[in-house]
Amino acid sequence: MNADVSKEPQQSSPENVRCIRCPDCGEEIMMVPVLAQMIEAIENHISTHKEHGEQNLRHDLPLQHPKAPVIRENLTEQVLTRAAEISEALNRNQTWINQE
Length: 100
What we know:
Number of helices: 2
Number of strands: 2
């Protein structure tokens, strides 16, 4: 059963701090440092949520999952939050090193 997309993602443990979790299926997606690759990873994951069996009559392509925009927004927010957390941790470590 799919999780409610409006719910907050589960808290990350230290082992998966560099992962984000899909709010719909719960799958973890590894964060990568290159923005274009991170966007691609999110889009690739969202493509796994496409409706099966239905075809777009104009383009003969699978229809987009109805929750795709919400999933995309949630994953993007998680990436930004995790990136800020990582940046803060690195800055704290750098400040500590500079004080020695």
